[in-house]
Design a protein that fits this description.
2 copies of one chain form a homodimer. In chain A, the strands form 2 sheets. The first copy, chain A, has a 6-stranded mixed β-sheet, sandwiched between helices. Chain A has a 5-stranded mixed β-sheet with strand order 1-2-5-3-4, with helices on one face. Helix content of chain A is 29%, strand content 25%. Chain A starts with a helix and ends in a 14-residue tail after the last strand. The first copy, chain A, folds into 2 domains: 130 residues, PurM-like, N-terminal domain (60s Ribosomal Protein L30, Chain: A, 2-Layer Sandwich), CATH 3.30.1330.10; 131 residues, PurM-like C-terminal domain (Phosphoribosyl-aminoimidazole Synthetase, Chain A, domain 2). Chain A contains 8 helices and 11 strands. By secondary structure, the first copy, chain A, is of the alpha+beta class. Chains A and B meet through helix 1, strand 1, strand 2, strand 3 and helix 3 of A and helix 1, strand 1, strand 2, strand 3 and helix 3 of B.
Chain lengths: 291, 291
């Protein structure tokens, strides 16, 4: 863990562009031809990001969706993706799911590379977008008093993962085929004080936004939208599970969101803890910690 | 082989942008904000693209250099790179070599992702550039009568690879630390009828340019620049070995190159073979064939 953390910090030290301070966390934003180019690169690894034996069509979909979710959080329209693909089993299924996702989100495959390798496969996707509003939303703008909003439910991916893993016959769509909040991101970008997508868990991602904005978020569990079939006893766990890909954002106090969203708390002056849940400092890991 | 070829074709079928017809071969070129954005993504896999035990600083350098070489062939100035990195051994050496390359080529690390995985590691790099001349050079513009030029020696990487593999003490720099021809690409872009970088071997890359341009190239082995220590008996082999990262280009007949370059043949009306070497159709594989 400490070795990996040291590496990330070393890579961040190399990163001369301010956007790259968010290496492994966030998009880069570049001025290009007078417009703001938003670019992100995420990887998925067999056995870590997908279950061995999982339908590669779903893996392809998720690879596209998770990268586009990063663009959504910047209020960016996707302009294309590049694929880094390790050849292996079910390549036809991968192509099928990739086509589904590219069609669903209306984004072209611009290029990429394919390689052969033994062992667990890794996949990479680079997504490019055009920001529709300046300044481009970041994690850093939340101010004390700003309400904290989320655009969708927390915990549906966790339940979907378990249904798929256990073969229970339950609905696994939310885990297999997440939908990036592109339209919501476009509508919200002109209004938000801070925005990001929730990928690693509500609490850890809220903590990251709090750190970037130098505030603390008060979160009210009773206000968080959970799926109807989530037992109340699992709500704290769901807030620590990732893969839901809702947008998390702050708005000025009097501003109503232009799309469906749930107010789950508010920002306050920075305290020692970045998040407070139901009035107390949450215990244990806040979510999935990236390598 | 046929399965892999089918996959590449399936991916190309998904690629709606014309540039992506060159998936796994070439850069994409996108109009963005009135400028031409050039973007490429290449992967390297342990045991395939680098020797197990090789210094990861050299691997990092090569990952950057090979992607920038793709930009060079488009006459593009690099504006940044994104890294997809699998954690493993020698991560500190990787960071060191990455820093060397970013400094040497004056390009910022914009972002990326890191993952953990067991088994052979794979690395991906996305490089972004700004084209300095329109139309952006492609492989498709060579015309019968155009002389064929190359900017650097062929075979140095092969000798370097062997020196490294065998621990002979010979100079392995050309294999370990290739230098993309960025300045040459900028100078050549306004003049060329076609241009690409030589990555998989002179003959196979020339054949790709010939196919894209619908011409046949006559290549004269005696005119090809080889390293002084390459035995003449190995020249045909060297023309089938990759990793040299020179630029291969055609110019109109009366145009002199603005940088050091060697005229190694010329384009003629298309025949059945894309390349003719010393007056005959070359036998056997022309170079490294991508998966």
């Amino acid at each position: 863990m400490s070795k990996e953390f040291a590496l990330i910090n070393a890579l961040r030290g190399l990163a001369t562009h301010s956007a790259a301070r968010g290496l492994a966390d966030d998009c880069a934003v570049l001025d290009f031809g007078g417009e703001a180019l938003v670019i992100t690169h995420d990887m998925m690894v067999e056995g870590i990001h997908w279950l061995p034996g999982q339908d590669m069509a779903d893996v392809a979909w998720k690879l596209v969706a998770t990268n586009l979710s990063d663009l959504a959080a910047k209020g960016a329209e996707p302009v294309g993706v590049l694929l880094g693909f390790t050849l292996g089993k079910q390549d036809d299924r991968f192509v099928s799911g990739l086509g589904d996702a590219l069609n669903a989100f209306n984004v072209p495959l611009l290029g990429g590379d394919t390689v052969s390798a033994n062992g667990p496969r890794s996949l990479g996707l680079t997504a490019l977008g055009r920001a529709t509003h300046r300044p481009v939303p970041s994690r850093a703008g939340a101010k004390p008093g700003d309400p904290l909003w989320i655009t969708g439910p927390i915990g549906a991916a966790m339940l979907g993962f378990e249904a798929l893993r256990d073969g229970s016959g339950g609905d696994s769509t939310a885990f297999r085929r997440p939908v990036p909040c592109l339209a919501e991101g476009l509508a919200l970008a002109p209004l938000v004080t801070a925005m990001m997508d929730v990928s690693d868990g509500l609490l850890i991602d809220a903590a990251r936004m709090a750190d970037a904005s130098n505030v603390t978020f008060d979160i009210d569990t009773a206000a968080v939208p959970f799926p109807a079939d989530l037992p109340p006893s699992r709500r704290q766990e769901a807030m620590r599970w990732g893969d839901d890909y809702a947008l998390l954002l702050t708005l000025p106090p009097a501003t109503a969101p232009p799309c469906p969203a749930f107010c789950i708390g508010h920002a306050r002056m920075r305290m020692s803890s970045p998040v407070i849940v139901d009035g107390a400092v949450p215990q244990g890991a806040l979510g999935y910690v990236h390598d």
